[in-house]
Request: fold
Amino acid sequence: MEMQQIRYFLSLAETLNFTRAAEECNVSQPSLTRAIRLLEAELGGELLRRERRQSHLTELGLRMLPLMRQCYDSALSARSLARSLKSNEIAPLSIVVSQTINLTLLMPQLNQLSRAYPGIQLKLKRGDGDEVNRLLRDGGAELAVAGPLAELWDRLDAWPIFEEPLELIVRRDHRLANAGEVELGQLAGERFLLRPRCELADLILRGLRANGIDAVNAHEVETDHDMIALLEANYGVAVAPASALTSSDALIHLPIAGVDLRRPVIVYGVAGRRRSTAATTLLNLLRAGDRQRSVN
Reply:
């Protein structure tokens, strides 16, 4: 399998037209057709079926498309990386990470990126779900890492990379602190602390309501620092990701029994927008490194 065959296939998958694909790839149509036929012979089946009005990808073509796109992106990234290292020119990388995500979860991939791109300049931004959407839409960030966004911009690509359980967080002298694990029913009458602008708010509220708990009078906060301060002052309890709010010795995390409360962590990019080499490399590292991993 040659890279030009993959490039021809990706163009063909986008245009669904041999003539337009050949024009985009700057080759003759017979050359493109011959390359696709050789690729199909190697893969053992048709990738695209021609019809009078509109061609379409076959089942094999649909299954091959994401794999070939990732393969092609990786090859371009490796080629650009080699050029960047040779010229010692590395562009800045702007990414936005949800306020609810502990950056330590992403450090293995960021460390690999730093080793691959010595001297890279990270521009790390934080935001809630609306800000993640806005920064990607306006070009303020090339990639985003967040939970499920309530309102997805229709040009966003999304790749789940791992899941993380939600836990109950209480002060160490709370009545449930020594319970080992708690059921949501045990939280009836408790005052909750919530972050209404974060992408987890609806997930948490739905989980509570499904177990007969109404958090309508919950305290509302904007930042981790405020959440920790109010929890330490015994203003209530919180349901949050397992990796969140770990900087306080006065608080304890408790597993929640009887329900499967987990939040997916997703890397987002803008479909069709050209990404820098560093952004493509980080995207591939995140997708490859955490695809089968859950945070327990």
Summary: Confidence is low (pLDDT under 50) at residues 290-294. The first strand starts at residue 48 and ends at 49. The CA atoms of residues 161 and 291 lie 5 Å apart.
